[in-house]
Amino acid sequence: MEWPYPVEWDRTTELSADVLVLGGGIAGCWAAIAAARHGADVVLVEKGATIRSGAGGSGCDHWESAATNPCSRITPEELTDAIVRSQGGYCNGISHYIECREGYDRLLDLEKMGGKIRDIDDEFRGADFRDEETKLLFAYDYLNRFTLRVWGTTFKPALHEECKRLGVRILDRTMATSLLSETRRSEAGRGSQGRGRLGGQTDGQPESRVVGATAVHARTGEFFVLGAKATILCMSRPSRLWLFSPELPGVSEFRPPQCNGDGHAMAWRAGAEFTMMEKSVQAEWSGTRSFPPYATGNTHNTWYACSMVDAEGREIPWADRDGNMVSAVSERYRPAPGQKLYLKGGCEPDLPSYEFQGPDILPVDELLAQGYKLPLYADLPSMPEHERRVIWGLMVGEEGKTKVPILQRYSAAGFDPDEDLLQSYGEGWRSAAFRPPERQLFGYPGGLMNDWRLRTNLEGLYAAGDQLFASNCHGHAATTGHYAGRHAANYARSAVSSKRDDGQIEAERSRIYSLVEGGSVLDWKEMNAAIAEVMQEHCGDTKSEELLDDGLTKLRELARHQATGLRVRNPHELVRSLEVLNVLTNAELVVHACLARRASAKHLHFMRSDFPGLDPPEWHKFVTVRLENETVVEGEMPLDYYGSLPEGYEANNEAYVGRESS
Length: 662
What we know:
By secondary structure, this protein is of the alpha+beta class. The chain has helices spanning 26-37, 76-86, 93-113, 155-165, 262-270, 364-369, 385-391, 395-398, 403-412, 474-494, 502-513, 524-538, 545-561, 571-596, 645-652, 654-661; strands at 12-22, 42-45, 62-63, 137-138, 148-149, 169-171, 174-183, 208-217, 223-233, 274-275, 281-282, 308-309, 318-319, 325-326, 376-378, 422-424, 439-440, 447-448, 461-463, 542-543, 607-608, 622-628, 631-637. Helix content is 30%, strand content 15%.
């Protein structure tokens, strides 16, 4: 088929701005909006179409951490402490305190932009989860009321429109490919492992100031040189590392498959510091055997706290934190006696101090031993009317990728939540049973290290959303995006413009367009599948130095013999090939992080057969890795490196705190 757009391999466009935002998802839009409102000239670069792009572009059904809403019974400090402790301390206290303290502010901003955050049509008047005065709806913990149910499909178009209103220059369908730096060379760093990098990639340099980025247009192949005084990384966490099907790439990931971690790869090559990249969890919502999340009956998250029955209609019991059976549906939404609060609905067996123990954690074998019969079903008809309608309608419908493929299609096919059960597949709520080597970066995964202004170790480079370590949900992306945007704008106001490195630009141009001239027959999907196979075999559930070293060798072989020979016939294939090279870089990053932690850690889901001792005290810390010259440099930080959360926040946000007090 003939390519329908003009191909402009030889065209270069140069732009400059005060603040450059890379990634136009939830965090990116908020960063652009905040920077523009603080007087900065802003350019936003998005690989897709900003109006609906990113992991949250198609919606969200709840806003997790609105601790300052008028009905909340807990403080931002209490909620942040619960989040951090639920992860055993391996969590980003800074970013989650920002989320808890500013989350409701961002919802009020969204409401002014046209997003819907209240039950203004009185659909749920009188519901246990509704506040009649404010018309706010709450999820999960109905007593403490810090998580709001929202109409998240209205959010992204509203953010896109606000960006345009503020004069943000949006480059849609444009893929960022590298960070540009003004480099002050110094003595090369010495890494304790001495392991090299993958061949053919830009070396990280010490003491680099980031002064912009390069990019390529996904339809025309046009090359962009983007200068900036401050740059904010707002792209997704890595994906497609362990799970990828060449035949079915569109359903291999819970998040959009093009959200593959380009920003992590760019930052790693530039010398940025990462932590917790050794953490991965057994796949739950990704892979070719998976049913679409929330399309199968369960009790987790969007479906919390739906009743479940077995094949003969026998209800599966619910228990609270302490194992006490609860009978009334309303009790599923309240803390146990003596429990201050509990976190997002559904349950994780490792977190009994906070979360309900519902049907999700009962092993299938135990259910069968008790006489239950498979398959299991979500029993919406037995739920109180308001609970039934808020699950099947608001929650299933507003969460990402549920409105059209699930709510609309199931309804069109005749599914009636007042009468019909919906089958659950796999164990509990899981949509498929995955093997231990099939993993993903999910559940507060690793990412860039940050300080109290969400700056990285590279001057001029900020991060937000999924680029940060221990990222989580829609509200976290929104609040950290806004926060990074205003701090980057303040930095840009006094930053001096820098002369770019033309040699660096030409090297990146050559790297990109050498793929066009390669003439190989290797498809990018085949390359991605090969990377996933290496990661499953050498960086699966249980790791060792020998396995990981062999994995690095195989990744290097892929880089040396396959990466430069990908088939590129048009700009679409160029972008897909650049993505898979970033997947390869991220695989290397993960393996190096796994080598750096020489101890097993429960909360990181990290097991090493050569260091089987679980959580030795001397390893209860953040382990960091970064690329300096040609060496991986390891470091460490205490888990509480950020100090007092209220004091750190207020010291770095005097103007914002002053606005809160006025």
